[in-house]
């Protein structure tokens, strides 16, 4: 049975005691350019660093990638490759790109225009955990690693792509930390 992404957030009540301030299912964000993927934007913190306590800010989930010191928590459900219908018509590309930019600002910026391999590079330190199904991590060197539930990936800003070669959806949980790219 697939997982329904839900976020439970704690905070402080008027008496200073810990309380649950949010407990809700998170709806997926989809776009035609994502070819069946479901993005669940769970939580995020401001660029420059997180704060905790009674006056901690609420979630910041957009832009898609955090700036230096910011964080993003998301789940991504990848459909099986067999369920994909192929790339969109080039005539629709501007409209499709605009849809992604509206729903998930910044996401499309990490992909090379016209490249359909899914290879991309981000200025984030990403911690990824395979939660359901199986997924393949591909690097630009050609190296590939099969991820199954419980596999943890530390993605250090390298060019990479994700592929679901199985017949069932795969779910990954990601924590992205905005980072400075070293020379």
UniProtKB/TrEMBL annotation:
Superkingdom classification of source: Bacteria
SUPFAM superfamilies registered for this protein in UniProt: RmlC-like cupins
Residue span(s) of domain Cupin type-2: 110-174
Alphabetical list of Pfam families matching this protein: Cupin_2
PANTHER family, per database record: CUPIN TYPE-2 DOMAIN-CONTAINING PROTEIN (PTHR36156:SF2), SLR2101 PROTEIN (PTHR36156)
Identification of the protein by name: Cupin domain-containing protein
Organism phylogeny: Bacteria, Bacillati, Actinomycetota, Actinomycetes, Streptosporangiales
